[in-house]
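Task card 7
Instruction: Convert sequence to structure tokens.
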Amino acid sequence: MNWYVAHIIMYVKFKDEIQDSYPIWENMILISADSDEEAMEKAINRAKEDEGDCEGSFKWNEREATWCFGGIRKLISCEDFNQKPTSGTELSYNEMIINKKEDFEKLINGDEVLIKYIN
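Output:
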């Protein structure tokens, strides 16, 4: 059994059909599978479990909404591919570029900054 991390994109769809923004979450889910193909199938099935509107109670900024599965942004095999992850195992990573050194500090502080994802 191999270990993967699926980067799942979920987005908010507004029920009033006025989609003036796309709130998104990138959820990272641990998956065990025997192959890349099986891991992808399991990741998609797992993501679809999170779709929905919490029986009609879900709202985003006071607007009725629903969570929708957008796609799998990437599927990463864990650092110790054939071993169960333990404390200290690198599960995933993001590669990105920023344009200015001062943006680096903003990123670390959680401030708004423009980044370019490589993968």
